[in-house]
Every structure is written in structure tokens, then in C-alpha cells.
Amino acid sequence: MSTRKFRCGNLEKPVGSVFRLEREEENHLFKILRASPGERIELLDGRGTIASAEVVPGRQVKLLELRRIPPPARRVHLYIAPPRRQKMDVILREATELGVWRIVPLICDFRVSEPDAASVAGRWNEAMFEACKQSGNPFLPQTVAPMRFADALEESCGSCSMIRFGSPSDSEPAEVPEGDVGWFVGPEGGFSEGELSQLRASGALPLRIGRWVLRVETAALAGIVLLTGR
């Protein structure tokens, strides 16, 4: 059985430190799981640090060991036109488990949903951190407020060494260099002709996954797998 994992926003502590977890995590550990002194747990800060800790009296934990995981050599930035909430929740959890580095919600011509900045900073992060704890991924994906398509494309051109976009008809090889890769996934109706023209003009390359037209959630996750080399 794997060691249970908990969130701890501040792991910049010396080994041997005794402290309390944040309230929600503390309640989960002691009220729901009824942890007893001597039990071992793991703590994640979402920034690449994993800590081993031991439950001690007084509803506290003692830090035993720290491990800092280096960032991956290939980092996929998912630029996605969010589907409706239930489907987006699936994408958030599973993309985190697959190791996506960053998720940027797009405001596209054919959008079906437009989350507000508060939801992205709040509910999205909560869902992704739960996936971090479940999977052991030490890096919480970064998020930003929803961006208009043209602004997101301009940003990706400045920060990513390669940009790929989902295409049901044509494709270029999926070989990807190390560094940051932008993966653009459109809404259920696909990108508009204007958006496709902008992608091609920017140097973005099409990527076809499978033989058939895919749902947003399928395309998003399959592309992450291909582009991270998993």
C-alpha cells in the first residue's frame, strides 16, 4: 500500500521540525483517517519537493526527510478551450496525473464554456492538487486566467520552442525537442478558420491523433502523452 500524501504549502523547514498541517489536510489526516503517532505520511508542496513525515502527538507531524525533484526536461503547456465543467474536471485531474506543466484556458470563437479567473485559481487548483496527491506528481500544474486565443498564441510563441495543434485531417511527425511545448486543443466545434490561419502563420504544426475526430478531453490527454514522450 502506498504512503498517503498530503498538501503542505511550506516545506522550507529544517528536518526535525514539528508542525501542524493546513486545516483541511489536518482534518483529513486525524478526523477521517484517525492517524496515530508513529504513522508515516508524505507531504507535497506542488513545487517539486516531497517530504517524509511522521505523525506525532498533538495532531502534528515531524519532518523526517526532504527530496527535491528536478523539473522535467520536456514541459507541455496545454492551451485548451474548456468544455463544460464535468468534462473539464476530468481533463484537470488526468492531465495532472500525466504530468502536464501548465494549463491555459482559451477563449475561442466557437467556445462552449468560459471559466472565470476565480474558478481557475480556486476550484481548478484544488482538483489538480488532489490529482497530485493521488498520483505522486510533485509539480502542481500552473494556471492563468482565461486568455483570448490571439493573446495566448502570441504568448506561446515567446515561451515555447514548438507549438502543436490538434488536427483531424493532417499531421506532422510528433518528434518534440526538450524544453517547453505548446499544445493547442480547440472546442467541440474545432478552431475557426481564422484561428487555424493564425496557428499556421505562427509556425505551429498540426498533430493528428488516431483515425477519427476526437472529443476535446480525449485529444487533450492523448496529445499530452505523445508530446511528453510517455
Brief account:
With 230 residues, the protein is α/β, with parallel strands linked by helices. Helix content is 33%, strand content 26%.
Characterization of this structure:
By secondary structure, this protein is α/β, with parallel strands linked by helices. It has two domains: 5-68, Ribosomal Protein L25, Chain P (Beta Barrel); 74-228, Alpha/beta knot (3-Layer(aba) Sandwich). 33% of the residues lie in helices and 26% in strands. The chain has six helices and twelve strands. Strands 6, 7, 8, 9, 10, 11 and 12 form a seven-stranded parallel beta sheet that branches. It has a five-stranded mixed beta sheet with strand order 1-3-4-5-2. Helix 2 (85-98) links the parallel strand 6 (74-80) and strand 7 (102-107). The longest helix has 19 residues, at 117-135.
Spatial extent as radius of gyration = 20 Å
Count of DSSP helices? 6
Proportion of residues in β-strands: 25-35%
- Corresponding CATH superfamily of the largest domain: SPOUT methyltransferase, trefoil knot domain
The parts where pLDDT drops under 50 for at least 5 residues are none
Overall pLDDT metric: 93
CATH top-level class of the largest domain: Alpha Beta
How many structural units, i.e. domains? 2
Helix content: 25-40%
Please give the largest β-sheet: 7 strands, parallel
**Shape descriptor:** elongated
Beta strand count: 12
CATH fold call of the largest domain: Alpha/beta knot
